[in-house]
Amino acid sequence: MKSKPLLESVQFPPRLLGALLASILWASPILVAPSFGAAQNVSNLPSIGDTEREYLTPIAERKLGEVIMQDIRRNLDYLDDAPVLEYLNNFGNSLLTARPEARGEAGYEFFFFAVRDPMLNAFALPGGNIAVHSALVLAAQTESELASVLAHEIGHVSQRHIARMLGQQSRDSLIPIASTLLAILAARVNSDASMAILASGQGIALQRQLSFSRDAEREADRIGFEILGAAHFDTSGMVAFFGRLQNATRAYNDTTPPYLRSHPMTTERIADIQGRIREQRYTQRVDSLDFHVVRARIRVLQDESSQGLHEASLFFDNQLLQKNRQKSAAAYYGLAFVALKQSDYTKASSALKKAVSAAQGPSTPLHNALFDSLEIDIDLAADHSAEALKAAITAHDRFPLSQGISRQYAAALMAAGQNEEASRYLRNQTQLYRTEFKLFDLLAQSYAAQNKLALQHMALAESYALQDGFSSALEQLVLARRAPDASFYDQAIIDARERELQARQTEELKENKKERK
Fold first, then answer.
1. By CB count within 10 A, which of 160, 256, 334, 509 is most buried?
2. pTM above threshold 0.85
3. For the chain, how many structural domains are there in total?
4. Looking at the structure, do residues 121 and 172 belong to the same domain, yes or no?
5. Phi/psi zone of residue 363: left (φ > 0), alpha (ψ -120 to 50 degrees), beta?
6. Which of 445, 367, 436 is nearest to 413 (CA)?
7. In this structure, are 98 and 247 located in the same domain?
8. Cα–Cα distance between 215 and 108 in angstroms, integer?
9. Do the domain assignments include residue 319?
10. Do 123 and 262 meet the contact criterion of CB atoms below 8 Å apart?
11. Residue 484 maps to which CATH number?
12. Does a structural domain hold residue 397?
């Protein structure tokens, strides 16, 4: 297997993740994402700029983004939560649907995700990957405010600001920046020491070099504003949210929130946005129920410690006092999610029923993927397999394109002992979503329950291969070949797949060897 990825080997303290990952990684990802085993590797940074245009080429940018996301997904603070991911991607892509040209000249396929962190921040990565910190989602008071942040980040990506920045950096100028980043990461045990490095002269120079220019910020504002208008969001949400971030500066004891450090909101920018707002007709936007429910879910996921769950419960209890239908539904949902985390399934089910009752109209049944998904999770956790399968069938019929509910449906089939049916369903799913390693994990579980050892190991091999664990994948293929139930057809597939993975592993070893020279 390849050397351990840097973001996986480094255990980021929350403050360091907020200050580094958010305000540094987005701007200079090439320095962090590759699997640098030691500081001496920084002298072998790949040359990926387009020297003629001083741009990072679209292909190189996309590949770089894929490498970065592989490492980020391994980090414990990556919110790998299907309902949250589906909401952010549905929401983000609705903005792009309203303004298709925002995908830029490279035709970016955007991916939106959340990072568990108490700092107010959001960041864009090469290739159309956009992240928001959990605290920023909670700080957004309206869906228009959240849309303003995502639209602004889309603007940076669509105008290729990151590609320009990296393309204009010479190979020699990248080396000292990489050295500083590695020194910061080496101080991971002591977050105060890490901050001291950032505060040093070299750290200050690094931060200045990574900041977007004023022109880039104005350009991202313009694109973001156009996206908001086209998607019929309240464009004043952009100024309102940036203003709230500026006010948060005082709450941080005069330490500017990371988002404003990397995206400085100057008086000139505020005046420019306000001028644009005055030229447009006011659009009132009603927040979706999903916005409030996802914020409740993120509040629980942000801190799952006993104290964190207790504080979340107190917040939801206070929210119920507001007597707002959507917020009450979200509060009950949050209480149900807290109870699930505490393994109190009776309380969780009761609170979810109250959430549904608060959310739906007097004569309109509620069809909501977030509520259906939580019901399935509660039934599965409580070992109510029949109820879980019934709920999963209903949810899958309602939301056939939801990958999260699709995996829950497969899990419910297995919980009900219908492993053969689960295998058939998962095989079809893996054909539709070939890069989803979690589907192969579930497929392996369904084969294991049927004692189909060869197929179990073959499915695990695909899961490891998708996560770049080629050595582990090859080991699973060896086990599959030795399995007593391996058929002649299975052996042929194993042989072909083994040759393919060995070739990919050899190529990767060659690349790593070049980096070490």
1. 334
2. no
3. 3
4. yes
5. alpha
6. 445
7. yes
8. 22
9. yes
10. yes
11. 1.25.40
12. no
